[in-house]
Design the sequence.
């Protein structure tokens, strides 16, 4: 019973690491001349291009939509924004997200990503894991004591 719970906990934690991915669909970003970006999405196995899906360039600062368009079989060419951004490709009810490519002159506004959130999350996860192991150990001792009597 205890191993089942640990197994479910491990599965849950690892499934969170694959967020913003759609199984079987990939996105590629390519920088073109004149500070343009080519966005392509395709199926992983067949390499067949997606078309008709919406692409959005979203600001990392305030989640504004900086630019958007629809994919064609040849991909979509968009201007590179002057601030840090994410590239979203909407596939059915899901989305694929990648960090955007910087323009030749660099971003005028950049977001500094700090690893503090990852550290806090890791520490909290370890703490809850230790607490759950401690509780399981105490319960198993209590059950053994009851079975002896």
Sequence:
């Amino acid at each position: 019973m205890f191993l089942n719970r640990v197994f479910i906990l491990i599965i849950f934690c690892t499934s969170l690491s694959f967020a913003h991915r759609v199984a079987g669909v990939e996105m590629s970003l390519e920088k073109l001349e004149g500070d343009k970006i080519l966005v392509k999405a395709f199926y992983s196995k067949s390499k067949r291009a997606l078309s008709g899906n919406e692409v959005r360039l979203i600001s990392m600062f305030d989640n504004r939509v900086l630019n958007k368009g629809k994919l064609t079989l040849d991909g979509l060419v968009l201007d590179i924004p002057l601030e840090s951004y994410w590239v979203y490709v909407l596939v059915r009810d899901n989305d694929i997200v990648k960090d955007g490519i910087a323009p030749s002159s660099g971003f005028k506004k950049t977001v500094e990503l700090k690893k503090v959130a990852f550290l806090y999350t890791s520490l909290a996860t370890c703490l809850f894991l230790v607490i759950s192991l401690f509780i399981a150990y105490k319960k198993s001792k209590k059950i053994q004591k009851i079975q002896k009597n």
